[in-house]
Amino acid sequence: MPTKYLVVFAQSHSDFRIPELKSIAELHGFPLHLPDPCDPNRPFMVIELDQEEHARLLAKRCILIKSISEFYGQGDNYDQLHAAVRKNEALWEQYKQDTSFRFSVAAYNHSITKSRQREVMESFGYMEFLGRIDLKSPTIVLGCYEEYGDTRGKEFSNKVVDGQFRQVYFGRLIEEGSARALISRFDVKKRAYFGNTSMEAEISLLMANQCLARPGSLVYDPFMGTGSMAYPTSHFGSFVVGSDIDGRQMRGKGKQPTPGVLRAAAQYGTAHRIVDLLTFDVTRNPWRCGGLFDAIVTDPPYGVRAGAKRLGRRRSPTPKQLEAYLEHQAAPRPADQPYIPPTKPYELSELARDLVVLARYLLKPEGRLVFFLPTVNDEYEDVDIYTMLCEGMELIANSLQDFGSWGRRLVTIKKITSDIYPIPFSDNSGQSQSTAQHEPAHKDFREKYFQGFRKGSTSLYDGVVQ
Amino acid sequence: MVRLITHNLLSCHAKGCTTNNFPLQFKDAEIEHREADFNPEFIRGLLPKIEWKALVDTAKELGDTSLPYEQPEMMDDELLKTLHHVLLEMHVEEGQMICPNCNHVYPISNGIPNMLLAEHEIA
């Protein structure tokens, strides 16, 4: 029979909470029942699980979980709460006799004075716990959480008043969220090798969870860069292959022979799981066959700090230029000056569509594509994402990290087909085979970013606040 | 790096090179052996994608003859361990990979192969 559990979330990335819960439940293969209606913006959520062990698994792996408790009751006020808790006596009467315990009283968006904390604890006197109170190592911890409304941007007179909470929850602590400690472990500033486009630790961990990183799975990052996604994914046991059109990002500067990505992975003890790093343009890739990877996880360059590039030239060369090029190409080259082919920009909406088609080819059935897509918040519509999909690829999560006028969406797409599809870019023209009628908000994102997201503005400086 | 698992999944992708473009041949390969965690499920999962003959031939070129010529139908633990060593623990750090068909040279430097195509090799 399912039991109710109270999830306390960390105060960040609320849009990512539910996708993460679902992903980790799927990873471990247990059912998860979410409340209906379900508001991911509130920091407390009562979910149903079949076993206490499942609650522990969630708390050990979900980056956004602070703790999970067995749920005893909730209410708009303490009278309601206590009535609910009394009704659930069957859940807690086993602890009455001689279980050592401790109370914890906390609040979201508010702090409760010591004296009122004591009042709250004493109001639970009817539970008649006879065991020893043990503050250091109790057998059970009973947690009471008051949830106050969000006060950001409100008038001073609307600030929270002690005791006037939105909801109060009570339960027995099962497990503190231990995955949050990984955020500090993977801190970019403490990493042996990183670049200015490295992804922050918390988000890269969330991406690793979205792609169901697990021992023995094979994960591919086609825009490897400085390897931000490889470290958390390999930490969870996946084998990672990375490619990039620019090998310098993976190697790093300096004379050290070991590539930067491997030096950073060595720091996390996962260098042996970075299978290989390769330099090539993913739109002209040398993969011999499809159906190779369990997941593709990537942060495509979207042009603010570094733009996406692909092989080719912006303009085709004149016959004279072409002749000069071929002559240059045929001439012997010193070993320390490798040939660097010309590249041209890769427009974001085209890249995104290509990525989905490529993922359908390269992923195993049930495999996941997880990537970030920056977009203009005012112009964004859900259809932007749906028009990116192709047959056999299904959207399973779309979470916004909001930066105000723009944001980036973590898109998770699952391959729901086991049909064999033709090799994308098989004509080797590098041209996109998909065309879209709809113009999504993320099209020409770079230009929009530098124009300050002002509609119809043409000058680079239009959007700058004077 | 380059490990034989990756090598077995790569073929030449230059313009017009579509037959006999696999496996790429190693030249002047400098090999390092590095231990990796043995994960039998991972190796088993890879097998359907591995071209056995190419793997055995390439391993032999690099001086490892531990794999049987014919792919055995049953995979015992011993064989999985041998495969694990060949696929994941042999790293080609320097050298070249050459296409048997068009002779395109993919140089390997510090374990990273450069598989970018030149302008005239793309359509």
From TrEMBL, chain A:
Residue stretches in coiled coil: none
Q: State the GO CC annotations.
A: cytoplasm; tRNA methyltransferase complex
Domain tRNA (guanine(10)-N(2))-methyltransferase TRMT11 N-terminal: start-end pairs: 4-177
Signal peptide bounds: none
Domain Ribosomal RNA large subunit methyltransferase K/L-like methyltransferase residue range list: 190-310
Q: Which InterPro entries match?
A: DNA_methylase_N6_adenine_CS (IPR002052), RlmKL-like_Mtase (IPR000241), SAM-dependent_MTases_sf (IPR029063), TRMT11 (IPR016691), TRMT11_N (IPR059073)
Record GO biological process:
methylation; tRNA processing
Keywords assigned by UniProt, alphabetized: Cytoplasm, Methyltransferase, RNA-binding, S-adenosyl-L-methionine, Transferase, tRNA processing, tRNA-binding
EC? 2.1.1.214
Where, subcellularly, is it found? Cytoplasm
Record bears the keyword Cytoplasm = yes
Any one GO MF annotation of this record: tRNA (guanine(10)-N2)-methyltransferase activity
Record's family?
Belongs to the class I-like SAM-binding methyltransferase superfamily. TRM11 methyltransferase family.
Instruction: Return the protein name.
Output: tRNA (guanine(10)-N(2))-methyltransferase
Automatic annotation (TrEMBL), chain B:
Q: Which GO terms describe its biological process?
A: rRNA (guanine-N7)-methylation; tRNA methylation
Query: MF terms per GO, please?
Result: protein heterodimerization activity
Q: Which InterPro entries match?
A: Trm112, Trm112-like
Q: One of this protein's Pfam families, by short name?
A: Trm112p
For this chain, the family text in UniProt reads: Belongs to the TRM112 family.
Q: How does it assemble?
A: Interacts with TRM9.
**UniProt-recorded name of the protein:** Trm112p-domain-containing protein
Organism for this UniProt entry = Pleurotus ostreatus
- Lineage from the top down? Eukaryota, Fungi, Dikarya, Basidiomycota, Agaricomycotina
